[in-house]
Amino acid sequence: MKVAICYKGTFNHPLWLVKNTFENHRSMLYDCFDDIDFFFSTYEGESEIEEFYRSQLEIRSYSYIDDSHRNSSTWNAQLEHHQSLAKQILQQDKTYDLVIITRPDLRWLKRFDEVNIDKKSFNIPIRHDSGNCDDNLFVFPSQYLNEFIDAALILQRTGGITHAINHRLEERNVPIHYMQDYDNSTFIHNSNLGQSIFTMCKYLKSEQLLELSKNLTSSIEEVSKPWGSYLNLVDEDYTKVKKIVIRPGESPSYQYHYQRREVWVIIQGTLTVRLNDIYKTYGVGDAIQIPRLSKHQPINNGDVDAVFIEVQLGTYFGEDDIVRLEDKYGRI
Asked: What pLDDT digit, counting tens, does each position of 125-163 carry?
């Protein structure tokens, strides 16, 4: 079976998460087929992620839509990606038995060959109570590529949303097959968009993120600190990623950096963040932006360990780019 696997959207996740999700796709999707070509529709400027995919996959086409779509409606941009991918496939000198259009940050919960797929129909994960559908995964034979382009184009011209593409396809006599029945009792938040089929990385729960970090760091030595400990998950020229644990009642120094900014994502406990002398408490799933030169300090006022993932972005990540202003351990 000849298969075209297509990825759409903005690929701006940390590289460690991209690599981990790639392994999920390899085992749950790629391993189900023998003959795969890959197609991408994204934006220019994400070179490290593009380089990673090119080093791993047989890519037929890696294309970019105009940057103006970054500032347009989400639906308009997605519809542009859909049309771009379908047109790329039609330009090839081979005919594909199956086309799979999805996202690089979709995380499969079951193998593709375990999903209820009708290979003669246009497959969509679920139909919502509203009548609209999920838009993160489409699976269909290539004979429907032109109808898919027409449906996306009419939605784009009329200001429609991608969740309504099932209606436009039905108007063009395309048979729709839903991979599973919609279960309203399980739909709590956006992580349930794919129900039993997939979730999205950005909606992973704290225990899932923690499990990812454990898998990534099982062979990495823990660095002890007077306030707790940390693990270096990623150490590259363009980023450093740490898993940081702060014991109850403890806190690192109040500090700032000249050459980097940081993003913190809490995966366990609660964390009080002192940012330029303003205090705010955050919980699991919260993300905190720490701009370059901003004075900052994480404080654990709780009674369990506070754990967060720290992503450093900038030009230099050495420990000597720490300017301590206050430190309870006498390290100034």
From this structure: 988 877 888 888 999 999 999 999 999 999 999 988 888
pTM of the model: 0.62
Q: Could you name the CATH architecture of 207-326? A: Sandwich (2.60)
How many Å apart are CA 151 and CA 33, to the nearest integer?
A: 28
Q: Three-state SS for 106?
A: strand
Task: Kindly calculate the radius of gyration of the chain based on its CA atoms and give it in whole angstroms.
Answer: 23
For the 2-204 domain, the top CATH level (class) is alpha beta
Question: What would the pLDDT profile of 18-61 be if each residue is shown by its tens digit?
Answer: 888 888 899 999 999 999 999 999 887 767 888 889 999 989 99
Beta strands in the chain (DSSP E): 2-8, 35-42, 59-64, 98-102, 106-108, 122-124, 138-140, 176-178, 198-200, 223-225, 228-235, 239-246, 254-256, 260-268, 271-275, 278-282, 287-290, 296-299, 306-314, 323-326
Q: Are strands 271-275 and 223-225 parallel, antiparallel or unpaired?
A: unpaired
Q: Within a 10 A sphere around the Cβ of 188, how many other Cβ atoms?
A: 7
The domain segmentation of the chain, as residue ranges, is: 2-204, 207-326
Positive/negative CA dihedral, 47, 82, 113, 110: positive
DSSP classification of residue 180: S
- CA–chain centroid gap for 80, Å, is 20
φ and ψ of 217, to 5 deg = -120, 15
